[in-house]
Automatic annotation (TrEMBL):
Gene3D superfamilies per record: 3.40.50.880
DJ-1/PfpI domain: residues covered: 3-178
Protein name: DJ-1/PfpI family protein
Domain of life: Bacteria
Signal peptide: none
Pfam families documented for this protein: DJ-1_PfpI (PF01965)
Family (UniProt): Belongs to the peptidase C56 family.
CDD domains to which the protein is assigned, alphabetical: GATase1_PfpI_1
InterPro entries: C56_PfpI-like, Class_I_gatase-like, DJ-1/PfpI
Amino acid sequence: MAKILIVTGDAAESLEVMYPYQRLLEEGYEVDIAAPARKQLRFVVHDFEPGFDTYTEKPGYTWPADLAFSEVDPGAYVAVVIPGGRAPEYLRNDPELRKILKSFFDADKPVAQICHGPLLTAAIGSLEGRRVTAYPALELDMQAAGATFQDSAAVVDGLLVSSRAWPDHPTWMREFLKVLRAKG
Protein backbone atom coordinates (compact mmCIF):
# COMPACT_ATOMS: atom_id res chain seq x y z
CA MET A 1 0.00 0.00 0.00
CA ALA A 2 1.44 3.39 -1.01
CA LYS A 3 2.03 5.85 1.80
CA ILE A 4 1.38 9.60 1.91
CA LEU A 5 2.79 11.97 4.50
CA ILE A 6 0.93 14.93 6.01
CA VAL A 7 3.21 17.46 7.73
CA THR A 8 1.58 19.72 10.30
CA GLY A 9 1.57 20.98 13.86
CA ASP A 10 -0.45 22.77 16.50
CA ALA A 11 -2.82 25.45 15.17
CA ALA A 12 -3.20 23.79 11.78
CA GLU A 13 -6.66 24.23 10.27
CA SER A 14 -8.70 21.17 11.35
CA LEU A 15 -10.45 20.71 8.02
CA GLU A 16 -7.23 21.07 6.03
CA VAL A 17 -5.69 18.18 7.95
CA MET A 18 -8.68 15.91 8.39
CA TYR A 19 -10.23 16.19 4.92
CA PRO A 20 -7.14 15.08 2.96
CA TYR A 21 -6.33 12.51 5.66
CA GLN A 22 -9.73 10.84 5.33
CA ARG A 23 -10.01 11.31 1.57
CA LEU A 24 -6.63 9.68 0.95
CA LEU A 25 -7.47 6.80 3.30
CA GLU A 26 -10.68 6.35 1.33
CA GLU A 27 -8.59 6.04 -1.85
CA GLY A 28 -6.57 3.22 -0.28
CA TYR A 29 -3.42 5.09 0.72
CA GLU A 30 -1.76 4.67 4.09
CA VAL A 31 -1.44 8.15 5.61
CA ASP A 32 0.94 9.27 8.35
CA ILE A 33 0.78 12.61 10.14
CA ALA A 34 4.14 14.04 11.14
CA ALA A 35 4.75 16.99 13.45
CA PRO A 36 7.66 18.47 15.40
CA ALA A 37 7.07 15.80 18.08
CA ARG A 38 4.88 12.72 18.62
CA LYS A 39 2.07 14.22 20.66
CA GLN A 40 -1.61 15.08 20.66
CA LEU A 41 -1.89 17.96 18.18
CA ARG A 42 -4.36 20.78 18.76
CA PHE A 43 -5.93 22.03 15.55
CA VAL A 44 -8.02 25.16 15.01
CA VAL A 45 -11.10 26.14 13.03
CA HIS A 46 -10.87 29.21 10.83
CA ASP A 47 -14.18 30.68 9.77
CA PHE A 48 -15.52 33.79 8.14
CA GLU A 49 -17.95 35.95 10.08
CA PRO A 50 -19.78 39.12 9.10
CA GLY A 51 -18.07 42.28 10.32
CA PHE A 52 -14.56 40.76 10.53
CA ASP A 53 -11.88 41.91 8.10
CA THR A 54 -10.19 38.50 8.24
CA TYR A 55 -10.99 34.97 9.39
CA THR A 56 -11.68 34.11 13.01
CA GLU A 57 -10.04 31.27 14.93
CA LYS A 58 -11.62 28.84 17.35
CA PRO A 59 -10.38 25.60 18.97
CA GLY A 60 -10.68 22.60 16.66
CA TYR A 61 -10.04 18.88 16.81
CA THR A 62 -7.16 17.18 18.54
CA TRP A 63 -5.34 14.35 16.78
CA PRO A 64 -2.20 12.34 17.50
CA ALA A 65 0.92 12.80 15.41
CA ASP A 66 2.13 9.43 14.15
CA LEU A 67 5.74 10.57 13.82
CA ALA A 68 8.10 13.34 14.78
CA PHE A 69 9.78 15.08 11.84
CA SER A 70 13.08 13.56 12.98
CA GLU A 71 11.60 10.05 12.47
CA VAL A 72 10.38 10.60 8.90
CA ASP A 73 12.00 8.70 6.04
CA PRO A 74 10.82 10.68 2.98
CA GLY A 75 11.75 7.74 0.73
CA ALA A 76 8.92 5.71 2.29
CA TYR A 77 6.27 8.08 0.90
CA VAL A 78 4.92 8.68 -2.59
CA ALA A 79 3.64 12.19 -1.82
CA VAL A 80 3.29 14.86 0.84
CA VAL A 81 0.36 17.07 1.90
CA ILE A 82 0.94 20.46 3.54
CA PRO A 83 -2.14 21.83 5.35
CA GLY A 84 -2.58 25.46 6.30
CA GLY A 85 -3.72 27.29 9.37
CA ARG A 86 -1.18 29.06 11.57
CA ALA A 87 1.11 26.03 11.84
CA PRO A 88 3.16 26.83 8.70
CA GLU A 89 4.16 30.20 10.18
CA TYR A 90 6.34 28.50 12.79
CA LEU A 91 6.97 25.16 11.07
CA ARG A 92 8.91 26.87 8.27
CA ASN A 93 11.67 27.45 10.84
CA ASP A 94 12.06 23.71 11.55
CA PRO A 95 15.23 22.40 9.84
CA GLU A 96 14.03 18.75 9.93
CA LEU A 97 10.83 19.67 8.11
CA ARG A 98 12.69 21.74 5.54
CA LYS A 99 14.91 18.70 4.79
CA ILE A 100 11.82 16.48 4.43
CA LEU A 101 10.08 18.84 2.04
CA LYS A 102 13.20 19.45 -0.02
CA SER A 103 13.58 15.70 -0.50
CA PHE A 104 10.07 15.46 -2.00
CA PHE A 105 10.88 18.18 -4.54
CA ASP A 106 14.33 16.72 -5.28
CA ALA A 107 12.76 13.30 -5.92
CA ASP A 108 10.03 14.84 -8.11
CA LYS A 109 7.18 13.51 -5.97
CA PRO A 110 3.65 14.98 -5.78
CA VAL A 111 3.08 17.78 -3.28
CA ALA A 112 -0.32 19.14 -2.24
CA GLN A 113 -0.42 22.44 -0.36
CA ILE A 114 -3.30 24.57 0.83
CA CYS A 115 -3.98 27.93 2.47
CA HIS A 116 -0.86 28.98 4.44
CA GLY A 117 0.94 25.71 3.57
CA PRO A 118 2.85 27.36 0.70
CA LEU A 119 4.81 29.30 3.31
CA LEU A 120 6.70 26.02 3.83
CA THR A 121 7.51 25.44 0.18
CA ALA A 122 8.51 29.10 -0.11
CA ALA A 123 10.90 28.61 2.83
CA ILE A 124 12.81 25.92 0.93
CA GLY A 125 12.94 27.91 -2.32
CA SER A 126 10.68 25.54 -4.25
CA LEU A 127 8.20 28.08 -5.62
CA GLU A 128 10.57 29.96 -7.94
CA GLY A 129 9.10 30.03 -11.44
CA ARG A 130 5.97 28.09 -10.48
CA ARG A 131 2.27 28.90 -10.66
CA VAL A 132 0.51 28.59 -7.29
CA THR A 133 -2.46 29.64 -5.28
CA ALA A 134 -2.71 30.08 -1.52
CA TYR A 135 -4.87 31.91 0.96
CA PRO A 136 -5.38 35.21 -0.94
CA ALA A 137 -3.65 37.29 1.76
CA LEU A 138 -0.42 35.45 0.84
CA GLU A 139 -0.34 36.71 -2.75
CA LEU A 140 2.61 39.04 -2.03
CA ASP A 141 4.45 36.28 -0.16
CA MET A 142 4.04 33.95 -3.13
CA GLN A 143 5.31 36.62 -5.51
CA ALA A 144 8.26 37.33 -3.20
CA ALA A 145 9.06 33.59 -3.37
CA GLY A 146 9.24 33.86 -7.16
CA ALA A 147 5.86 32.29 -7.94
CA THR A 148 3.05 33.51 -10.14
CA PHE A 149 -0.04 33.75 -7.94
CA GLN A 150 -3.42 32.69 -9.32
CA ASP A 151 -6.62 33.23 -7.34
CA SER A 152 -8.21 29.88 -8.16
CA ALA A 153 -9.70 26.89 -6.32
CA ALA A 154 -6.73 24.75 -7.40
CA VAL A 155 -3.58 25.33 -9.41
CA VAL A 156 -1.60 22.42 -10.83
CA ASP A 157 2.01 23.09 -11.78
CA GLY A 158 3.64 19.80 -12.65
CA LEU A 159 3.42 17.68 -9.50
CA LEU A 160 2.61 20.63 -7.23
CA VAL A 161 -1.10 21.10 -6.48
CA SER A 162 -2.08 24.16 -4.47
CA SER A 163 -5.37 25.53 -3.19
CA ARG A 164 -6.67 28.62 -1.38
CA ALA A 165 -8.50 27.23 1.68
CA TRP A 166 -10.89 24.55 2.93
CA PRO A 167 -13.91 25.71 0.87
CA ASP A 168 -11.88 24.52 -2.18
CA HIS A 169 -11.28 20.98 -0.87
CA PRO A 170 -13.23 19.07 -3.54
CA THR A 171 -11.37 20.75 -6.40
CA TRP A 172 -8.00 20.52 -4.63
CA MET A 173 -8.24 16.81 -3.82
CA ARG A 174 -9.70 15.95 -7.23
CA GLU A 175 -6.66 17.56 -8.89
CA PHE A 176 -4.20 16.02 -6.44
CA LEU A 177 -5.65 12.54 -7.00
CA LYS A 178 -5.27 13.02 -10.77
CA VAL A 179 -1.60 13.84 -10.22
CA LEU A 180 -1.13 10.83 -7.91
CA ARG A 181 -2.75 8.46 -10.41
CA ALA A 182 -0.72 9.84 -13.33
CA LYS A 183 2.52 9.55 -11.36
CA GLY A 184 1.66 5.94 -10.50
